[in-house]
Amino acid sequence: MINSILTNPSIYNITQTTQVQVAVETGLKAVGRPGFILLDNSIDQNTKKYSATKEFLYQLTCIGLSLGVVIPIFKKGSFNIARKLFKDEPIFNVFKNSDEFNKFYNSAKENRVEKLREIYARKSSDYSDEDLQKHIHLAKGMIETTSIAGSVLGLSIMAPLISRPFIRPILSKVMPEKPQKSEPAKLDVQA
Q1: Which pTM does this prediction carry?
Q2: How many CB atoms lie within 10 A of CB 30?
């Protein structure tokens, strides 16, 4: 059963994008981290609940930010950035955006070069198969690179800044009792 899941072409295709990998990882963190905090018996109950809830809310923020802001902006922007960086590369002008390229990329698995030659039509004789393959790799690489940059920016910089102002108020309403800070033992100076 595991073998059939791992070798399933649909699963393979889904896991080939940075966006899906980040979403799956963040989703697992949203469940796993609070779960492991709750399983830790060396922490008192209030602290466990507070920490697990805070971690869950933070990971939800990350998922929302990733799916709602980072992926749409960087996915749409990838070809616009590429057009400025690679002005002489026709692949960024043939496809309007990364969605259109990804449809081509996923639908023409075995014969991408031939399909791209058909799309280029008038200019196809100007390029060798190796050139066309390089164009395909350049476009796919640009999409994945901007996705990685967006994920790093969104999850490493934006998520902590955005989550901080609203997680504490939510925690204070959901969990009115804050965990008690333990006082350090007082030093007996007369001993």
Answers
A1: 0.68
A2: 19
